[in-house]
Design brief:
This protein has one domain: TIM Barrel (Alpha-Beta Barrel). Helix content is about 40%, strand content about 15%. It has helices spanning about 1-10, 15-25, 30-35, 70-75, 120-130, 150-160, 185-205, 225-235, 270-285, 300-310, 320-325, 325-340, 345-350, 355-360; strands spanning about 45-50, 50-55, 60, 80-85, 100-105, 110, 135-140, 170, 215-220, 240-245, 265, 290-295, 315. Strands 3-13-12-10-9-8-7-4 form an eight-stranded parallel beta sheet. Helix 9 (about 270-285) packs parallel to helix 10 (about 300-310) and helix 10 crosses helix 12 (about 325-340). It is globular. The structure holds flavin mononucleotide.
């Protein structure tokens, strides 16, 4: 069924196809049921992120439903959690179009959307009114016209708006499409930013029984030397987990006609690098904090590779575009089998279980 829909959608401009699909899922959430398959239940795959519980580890990555308009339809696709955003304090239109490109031969996308979103007020209202109870992460960014020196105010605003309605919060300083945003990933900038965000979250949640954990989303383009040091410092500063990774600005081995477009590359070509980053983070913090893996996951074995490298949850975006909603049930079913085959009774036992990983990466 999705093959047919995809055939039609892939004839359209990529962003138009995106809006059409999201529009259908918003207006007719049950339509997802026509394309998705029921997700099998598996005790083995149940997992946690701090106090949050998930029936399986496959969620939707940030950026697909930035404004949280289609949560019900997306939940019916079988995701165990959904990350909305990136949301900025004020609405903004994003970069000029065209800004989203399908690299079909590479099973990849290049996007330079630039945090187009309807702003924090609208998303907050939607999350407050949601009937749905699967965990929702809110990915926070800064407005394009907020200078880096004042970026912390935008992130604190995000915390104040969403601490009461989000299940987890993400500090996004790793998008390549907001000028100079990635400069905030230096330790000198990011440590105080994280400390301020965590303090704001604590203040906002004083009266609540639980508080949404604060995670940091990391770029794959940081060097192998910088990542362990940064992860360690962030953990010390109070960050409670990581998302590894965002899209990449590298362009290795691509064949599609759109390969020279600027922006962030996602999908298959990102898979190995994002797994390496997961491994580097997991090792540097000795598995003390959860990692959500993101980047080029198209199958259960891709997800398993990332779990063995150290993540407890996995997000997909590009594979959802290429493979459609039935992918989630398929991945859940096959991941359960892969874990069973390797003798894991619980997925959590497989997290970071790679053997010889230090030798392989030559880290220590
Ligand atoms: C069109 C598009 C828009 C995205 N927008 C965001 C965003 O707003 N914030 C963010 O943190 N990541 C964003 N991402 C990155 C994804 O969340 C994900 O980390 C990345 O695409 C790697 O996963 P994938 O290979 O499964 O797509 C976007 C990705 C795409 C393709």
């Amino acid at each position: 069924m999705y093959k047919l829909a995809r055939g039609l959608l892939f004839r359209l401009d990529a962003e138009l196809a995106h809006h059409l699909t999201l529009g259908v899922l918003t207006r007719f959430p049950a339509a997802a049921g026509l394309m998705a398959k029921p997700v099998p239940e598996s005790k083995r795959l149940q997992t946690t992120l701090h106090h949050l519980q998930f029936p399986h580890p496959i969620g939707l990555a940030a950026g697909l439903d930035k404004d949280g308009v289609a949560l019900q339809g997306l939940a019916r696709c079988g995701f165990s959690f959904i990350e909305v955003g990136t949301v900025t304090p004020r609405p903004q239109p994003g970069n000029p179009t065209p800004r989203l490109f399908r690299l079909k031969e590479d099973e990849a996308l290049i996007n330079r959307m630039g945090f187009n979103n309807r702003g924090a007020n609208e998303l907050q209202r939607r999350l407050r009114d949601r009937p749905l109870r699967i965990p929702i992460g809110v990915n926070l960014g800064k407005n394009k016209d907020t200078p880096n020196a004042l970026a912390v105010d935008d992130y604190i605003h995000g915390v104040e708006m969403f601490a009461g309605v989000a299940d987890y919060l993400v500090i996004n300083v790793s998008s390549p499409n907001t000028p100079l945003l990635r400069d905030l990933q230096s330790e000198a900038e990011l440590i105080p930013l994280v400390q301020s965000v965590v303090a704001a979250r604590n203040k906002a949640c004083q009266q609540r029984p639980t508080a949404p954990p604060v995670l940091v989303k990391i770029a794959p383009d940081l060097s192998d030397d910088a990542i362990p040091a940064l992860a360690y410092a962030l953990a010390e500063a109070g960050c409670q987990g990581f998302i590894a990774t965002n899209t990449t600005i590298t362009r290795n081995g691509l064949i599609s006609e759109w390969k020279a477009e600027s922006g962030g590359l996602s999908g298959r070509p990102l898979r190995a690098r994002s797994t390496d980053v997961i491994r580097l983070i997991h090792q540097s913090i000795e598995g003390r904090l959860p990692i959500i893996g993101s980047g080029g996951v198209f199958s259960a074995s891709d997800a398993y590779e990332k779990i063995k490298a150290g993540c407890t949850l996995v997000e997909i975006y590009t594979a959802f575009i290429y493979k459609g909603p039935a992918l989630i049930a398929k991945m859940v079913e096959e991941l359960d089998k892969l874990l069973a085959k390797d003798g894991f009774e619980r997925m959590s036992d497989a997290v970071g279980s790679e053997s010889n990983m230090e030798k392989k990466s030559g880290l220590r």
